[in-house]
Amino acid sequence: MASTVRTEVRGDQAFSRPGQASDHRARAARALLSWDVAVLTAVALLVRLIHLDHTVQVDELNHVFAARSLLENGTLQIGDDAGIYTRAWGFTYVVAAAFALLGESIVVARLPAVLAGTALVAVLFVWTRSVAGRAAAWVAALLLCFDPTALFLSQFTRFYTIHALLFLLGAIAVFSLCTRPASPRRRIGLALGALAAFGLAYHLQVTTVVGVAGVALGGCLLLIRREVIAVVGARWRWWLPALLLLSVPAAFVAARLLPLYIGAFRYADAWAGGSVDDPLYYLRMQLDWYPALWSLLPIVFLAAVYHRPRFTAFAGTVFLVAFSIHSLAAWKNPRFVFYATPFLFAFSGIAGAAALRWIGRQVMTACRRSTWPVHGGRLARPAAAMALALTTGYLVAINSAYRLTAKMLTVDDADWTAPILYRGEPDWAAAAEALRSVADSSALIVSSSDLKALYYFGRLDVILSANELGSAFTMRPDFSISEKMKRPVIRQPESVARLIECSPSGLVLVEDKHLDQTWSVPPATTDYLRNHTEVVPLPAGLRLAAFRWRNPTHADIACPAGITPIPSS
C-alpha cells in the first residue's frame, strides 16, 4: 500500500514537472521583462530630466499662458487682453493640472511631455519585444531614447510626445486585431481602444489622419490572405449593404473636410517658406543625422522583412506613408513626422539586432578556427563582445544625431556657439533683469517674439515680425491686428518711424536670429533700427538685441489704432 502511494506521488510529481518548469520559465520571462522595462524607463527618464530648465522656445508659452488663465478664471486666454488659445486644449488642461499640483514654472510645464516621452520609449520596447525578441526591442528603444528630436520634444511644453504615444498605442491595437486570434469581446475592446487613441491623437494633431492612412494600409496588407478573401467573398451579400450605407456619411464628411485638409497641406508660416517646395527636406535631414541607417535603409528594411515579415510590413508601411506624405506638404519640421519615428526604429531594431548577432557569430567562428599564436576557443566570447562594442561605437560616432544628443545633455544653452534647431535660444530671463529699468521707463514695448516679451517683461504693445502678418504666400499690411495676441503687427521701417514719431520713448527687443530675416525683421528694418535708435548693450550670450528711443519733443501725432503709449515712469 505504501509502495503504491509512493509510486502515485512520484508519478504525480513526475507528471507535474513539465508544467512547473513551464510556469517557472514564464515567471522568469515576466521578471526579466519587468527589469528591462524598469531599467529602460529609468534611463529614458534620467536623460529627459537633464537640462530640463533650458531656455524657452516661444511655442511653449502658448500653453503656459492658457494654463495660467485656466486656473485663474477658467478661460484659455493668453494674457489679460489677448485672444483665446484653443489648439490642443486638452493638453493645456494637463499643463494646468501640473501647475495646480506643483506650482507654475517652465520646468513643471514640461513634465507632461517628459513623462509621455519616457512612456513612449517603454511602450515601443514592450511591443517590439513581444513580436521580435529582446535584442531587437533594446536596439529599437535605445534608438528612440537617444534620438535628438525625441529628447527635445520630451523637454518641450507641447503635445508631440503625448500625440506620438497615443498614435503608437492605437497602431498596436490595430496590429493586434490583424494578427492575433481573440474573442469577440477582446476584438471589440481593441477596436474601441484604437478609435479612442486615434481620436485623442487627432485632437492634438490633425496630421493624425496621415498616420491613420498608413495604419489602414498596413492593416490591409496584414489581412490580405487567402482565407480572409474567401470569408469576405462568402459573405459579401451581407457586408455590401452595410458598406454602401456607411459610404454615404463618409462621403459627406470627406466633402466637408477635404478642402480644409488640402488648405492645411499647402499652408506654411513665413518662417518656413524656404522648405515649401522641397520634397527632399526630411530625406536630407535624416541622411545628415543618420547616414548609416538611411544610406542602407532598403537593406535594413529587407533584413527586417526576412526576420519578421508581418511586423516589418506593418511598421514600414506606417512610417513610409507618413514620411512620403509629409515630404510633399508645404510646412515641414522634424516634429511633424515624429509620431512616425518609432515605427522606423522598430524595424531598424530588428535588422540591427540581426546584424549584431551575425557579427558576433562570425567573430566567434573565426576565433575557434584560429590556432596561432594560441588556440582561439577561449578568446571567442571576449572577441565577439569586443567586436560588438566597436561596431556599436562606430555607428554611434558616424551618426551626427548622437553628437547632437550628447551636446544637448552636456552643454548649457549659453555655451552653444549659435542657436541650432533644439538649443541655444535667447535668454529672455537674463535680458529682463538687465533691461528692467529701461522697460519700465519706455512708453512702448515692441518685440519680434510676442509671447516671450509678454511673459518675461509683462508687457507687449507692438509685434515686429513679418511672420505674424501672414504666411509664406501672402502678407497683410502693417498695423494689422494679430488674431491671437490682439496687438498691431509691423515689419517695415516706415512703421517703426511712425512709432517713434507718436511716442516719447520705446524699447525694441529682437532676437539675434530674427535680425535681417525677411520672414521676421527684414534687412531694411534692421538697418533703420541700428541707424535711428540707441543700441542698448547686452552680453552676446543672451542672443538678444535691444534698441531704444527717447523723443521727449515728439510731435503731437496720434499713434495708429490699437497703440496707446503709457506714461513713462
How would you sum up this structure, described in words?
By secondary structure, this protein is mainly alpha-helical. It folds into two domains: 48-230 and 265-393, no CATH class; 428-550. It is 63% helix and 5% strand. It is built from 23 helices and seven strands. It has helices spanning 2-49, 60-73, 89-102, 106-132, 134-145, 148-153, 160-179, 184-204, 208-223, 226-234, 236-265, 281-289, 291-295, 297-307, 309-328, 341-369, 380-398, 400-410, 428-434, 436-440, 450-457, 493-502, 523-532, and strands at 444-447, 462-464, 480-481, 488-490, 505-511, 534-536, 544-550. The protein has a seven-stranded mixed β-sheet, with helices on one face. A hairpin with a 7-residue loop joins strand 6 (534-536) and strand 7 (544-550). The longest helix is centred in the first third of the chain and has 48 residues, at 2-49. It is globular and about 95 Å long. The termini are far apart. The model is unreliable at 1-16 (pLDDT under 50).
